[in-house]
Amino acid sequence: MSRSSGVLLSVTSLPSKYGIGCFSKEAYDFVDWLAKAGQTWWQILPLGPTCYGPSDDSPYQSYSAFAGNPYMISLETLIKEGVLSRKECDALDFGEDPARVNYDKLYENRLALLHKAYERSNISQNPEYQKFLKDNNWWLQDYALFMALKDFFGGVCWTEWPQDIRLHWGFALDYYREKLYFDVEFQQYLQFTFFRQWLKLKDYANEKGIQIIGDMPIYVSLDSSDVWAHPELFQLDESNTPTAIAGCPPDAFSADGQVWGNPLYRWDYHKQTGYDWWVSRLYQSFRLYDAVRIDHFRGMDEYFSIPYGAKTAKDGHWEPGPGMSLFNTVKERLGEKQLIAEDLGHMTDTVRKLVKDSGFPNMKVIQFGFDVNDLGKTNDYLPHNYDRNCVVYTGTHDNETIAGWWKGLKKKEKQLLRDYLDDNHTPDESFYRSINRMAMASAANICILPLQDVLGLDNSARMNQPSTVKTNWRWRMSDDMLTKEAQKELLEVTKRYGRFNWLTKKEK
Taking the complete model, does pTM exceed 0.85, yes or no? Predict the structure, then answer.
């Protein structure tokens, strides 16, 4: 990966008329804005269908490792296709605050609209749709039935379904496929529409010189078609109940650790199959993205195992992950791919070795570099310690915005940062620009700035605060935020530090 830069923005955070960012005109406008600012990358959050409920529609808790989120389907496009009317779309309530996604309203109203579009689409007669079914049958058949069953059984987790279908017995599958035929077809229509719209947007971005960095969660949700249809891949007992779940151990930030609840992989079984499922997962990812960030990469070296049912992570322990065995197999079967290792958190020598052996660029976060108790050579996140094979961020989707973080620093901490930059002149309210420049000036081959940091927004624009619920993944930008002034400023700093993308198609 050559020296370049880009912007981190969830698709859901784009402005649009109907409650959530999607593959509408505003997404194309954002691509144009990035191109004119000389950028190379648009990094997004996972595109999978989110689990409704306590997970707060987190993109890291999905009903499928292969499917797309129907919330991102552009209603405007469906209006142009004639399967929805503007009057129908305008009549529904998607929430009163355009700066926040209202997931409750989306769940109540958006899927009903999409069902109307399906009913009017005459989709079964579409040859493009038939080809989509054939090409994606290897994952789509189970996923579409899974989602139809969830609706049929009132939305409960599959672990609460009747035994015959919960255990994926063949006669039960046949029975429900026939009984729920049109519900299954609706789910297939949603995926066909999602993929068609997303790949059209991705092609447009690529033509403009913008590449997409996707985000692949290491784990899948327990309530997913993957676990229901392929229990042999996970640490489950004979009744398909998890025996152990994922999380992280107690640390300075949490005395109890974190219990994530995702089922853990049976890595010995995956290895016996030649990592077929993982190869398929990455194959699908590279259909959708140009580069892929593997979330929680350290779990590939060692993963934290917590007994199922535990309320805290105190009784958990570390187990070995697949290591280079997985990545060597992926390289053999898929060839060289652009992967990024999210290696944040507690680092060990074995994790460092895995990152080095893989050759993947790892992550550096500016906010982690300026601890008054950990300065100098030992802090990997200080810019003077970076090598080139890394990706630097001012912050990630889990961090405060850089302006919010700076505002919350103590006087001693602020002075430490000013001394590091030899900058005692920039006012506090615009110091985020100095931090952005520090990231851009670093040796890291790739620099990714969250859009909130490009614009200097405070913590009201924060995307996620870990260990909290019902407030996350909701932030949306307004129509007037992508100004020419902000674009010009980003373009100038990109050129200044040698990250300008000469492949972008710019308008004079």
Answer: yes
